[in-house]
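Q: How do we represent a protein-ligand complex in a form that can be generated token by token?
A: Start from the inputs.
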Amino acid sequence: MQPTSTEVPRPRFHFTPRRHWMNDPNGLVHHGGLWHLYFQHNPEGLDWGNMSWGHATSPDLQHWTEHPVALAHRTGEQIFSGSVVASRADCDVLTAYYTSAYDDGHQAQSRATSDDGGFTWRTDPGNPVLDRGTIAFRDPKVIRYDDGHAARWVMLTVEADDRQVLLYVSHDLRSWEYLSTIGPLGATGVVWECPDLVKLPLDGDTDDPRWVLLLSTNPVGDDPDPAGSSMHYIVGYFDGTTFVPDFPELRRLDHGRDYYAAVTFDDAPGREAVTIGWMSNWRYAHAFPTAPWRGAMSLPRTLTLRTVQGRATLVQAPPAFVREHLEHAASTSVAVVDRPAELSLTGHSLLELRWDPASTGTLRMQLRGAADAFVDLEHAPGTGSLRLTRGGPAAEAVHPDFPSTTTVPLPGDRPARLLLSLDGPLLEVFVADGEETASNLVLLGAEGVIASLETARPGTVHVTAVDVEAPTDVALPAPAAVLS
Ligand code: FRU
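Then emit the structure tokens for the protein with beta-D-fructofuranose bound:
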């Protein structure tokens, strides 16, 4: 039987809208000491429609306050995804670019400005300001390009159906000139959505930066891939005009089923690249049984670029507050002998596991709660990967494509480290501080979760577990109880 919405607890340390539908993060910007998160929102219902920009802010990326709708749909026009930048010349003005999705089917880029720090917006009377007369021209992401000689604004947009990213340049954030096109490349049978282009030093060397193209792809057509939406990246070089990939190949950014449309914040402190993604999948987003809200954001992640096996690889670290919660927790060494060790968690929990696959052999962890469903994690050293399975009758009832097994690269020949963030229906797995990630919606019920852990051979698994308190509770996070 499909779980009712009351059995899917609202996340405590992730953003969810108070009410109604949410998809992509939009307009991510750090401004006036606050992280601003705008989001694709239906202010009138639990399903996609009437698309508008909702708005929330956070001082610390953990606690969010929702504000009134920032950009509302109007007759004949929905407000699709886009971005916000803080003008470097006049610090008090924010400029938003979004897609006007007109009822006649055509899509073009529009502009709005805010001079009260992002709370109220004035749309430009000249909108749309960038229009090709096409039907899938969307998701403007404006970035700052500054090579020390010349600074400029660059806008990335997609022609979604053509699997192309189009780049434009501006000096005044008002008029735009075409620069170049990326793609088509990679798999056919998908649309390209929500691009971003991020400059990152390779292995911390600021004299040796690369540019990373972030891209979301969603299957379309007569026989779409049932795995649905996913995110990818390409590492390359950008000279302010043209992006040249190292290898013209899309690499998987997150191995789970529910991580989409992630982009970076503009003007983050220390010029760090911080992302947030939408934790769902267009395949079944409409069917996930929550109310009075539907849609959740991921944990924020800090991006870096590290050489792994000779290739520049994107690393996505969890936010500082996750580390801080874990540091307050008592670390527990669990000796797994002849029966599974069990941890009792609230289900709003952070869990770090360290073990040596060479001595333990296969490690299995199952998560179960009151719902008639399960989540299994299994690492068999010989496979070089972690398998994540979600299943059971309640999972099957969501949508035929909801039950799934996904694999995450995890070598078996050296000590392994996993960080699991479980917050109600949101499970995010970070391998080795984010060298690989996997994000999945899960159904476990509302009355706490038992994590049972077993290994093929007797051995020690070091476990650090902490339950995160509800936002209204200011007490330090309590360590999770270890049952056996
Ligand atoms: C991606 C997307 C965007 C579009 C928005 C509409 O999830 O399809 O391409 O702007 O959602 O809500």
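The first helix runs from residue 320 to 327. The radius of gyration is 22 Å.
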